[in-house]
C-alpha cells in the first residue's frame, strides 16, 4: 500500500514537471513574440511602378518612338513599294496565264517566287533592325527610370518598390512620380 502511494506521488510529480515544462515553453514563446512584435508592427512602405506605362506614355518614350519611326520610314516605304509591285505582277500573271506559253508562265512564276523571297527577307531584316534600334533607345529610358525610382525610394523612404504586378492599389502606384522625374 505504501508503494502504491509512492507510485501515485511519483506519477503526479512527473505530470507536474511536464505541465511546468509546457508552461515554461509557452511563457518563453509568448515573451519572444512580444519582443518580435514591434519589429513586425513597424510599417513597411511599398511602392509600385508600371514599366509598361513608362515605356508607352512618358515623354522620353514618345520621343524615342518618333525618332525610330522617322529613321525607318524610308525603308518601310521601300517595302511597301516592293509588296505593291509583287501584288501587281501576281495579278498580271493571273490575268495573262491563259494566253502565256508554258515556259513563259513558269519563268514569271519563278520571278514572282524570287521577288516574294526577297520581300520576306527584307521584311525580316527590317523587323530585326527596328527591334534592335527600339531596344537600344528604350534601354536608356529604362536606365533613367531605374535611377529615378532609386532616388524616389531614398527621398521618400520606400522599403520596397515592385515593377509589374498582377493587381495594385492606386495608393502605392508611384508611376506618375517616376514619369514626372523623367520629364513627363
Mind explaining what this structure looks like?
- The protein is mainly alpha-helical and 184 residues long.
- The chain folds into two domains: 1-42; 46-181, 2-Layer Sandwich (Protein Binding, DinI Protein, Chain A).
- Helices cover 80% and strands 4% of the residues.
- The chain is built from five helices and two strands; from the N terminus they run αβαααβα.
- It has helices at residues 2-41, 51-57, 59-96, 102-156, 175-181, and strands spanning 46-49, 160-163.
- Strands 1-2 form a two-stranded parallel ribbon.
- α2 crosses α3 (59-96) and α4 (102-156) packs across α5 (175-181).
- The longest helix has 55 residues, at 102-156.
- The radius of gyration is 37 Å and the shape is rod-shaped.
- The termini are far apart.
- Pfam families: OmpH.
- This is Periplasmic chaperone for outer membrane proteins Skp.
- It comes from Paralcaligenes ureilyticus.
Amino acid at each position: 500500500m505504501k508503494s502504491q502511494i509512492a507510485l501515485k506521488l511519483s506519477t503526479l510529480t512527473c505530470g507536474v514537471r511536464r505541465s511546468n515544462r509546457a508552461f515554461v515553453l509557452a511563457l518563453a514563446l509568448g515573451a519572444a513574440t512580444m519582443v518580435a512584435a514591434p519589429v513586425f508592427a513597424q510599417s513597411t512602405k511599398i511602392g509600385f511602378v508600371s514599366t509598361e506605362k513608362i515605356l508607352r506614355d512618358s515623354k522620353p518614350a514618345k520621343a524615342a518612338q518618333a525618332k525610330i519611326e522617322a529613321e525607318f520610314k524610308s525603308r518601310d516605304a521601300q517595302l511597301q513599294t516592293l509588296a505593291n509591285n509583287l501584288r501587281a505582277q501576281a495579278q498580271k500573271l493571273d490575268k495573262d496565264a491563259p494566253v502565256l506559253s508554258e515556259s513563259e508562265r513558269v519563268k514569271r512564276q519563278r520571278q514572282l517566287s524570287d521577288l516574294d523571297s526577297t520581300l520576306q527577307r527584307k521584311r525580316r531584316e527590317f523587323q530585326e533592325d527596328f527591334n534592335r534600334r527600339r531596344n537600344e533607345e528604350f534601354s536608356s529610358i529604362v536606365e533613367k527610370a531605374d535611377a529615378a525610382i532609386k532616388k524616389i525610394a531614398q527621398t521618400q523612404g520606400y522599403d520596397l518598390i515592385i515593377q509589374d504586378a498582377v493587381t495594385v492599389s492606386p495608393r502605392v502606384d508611384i508611376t506618375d512620380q517616376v514619369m514626372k522625374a523623367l520629364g513627363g
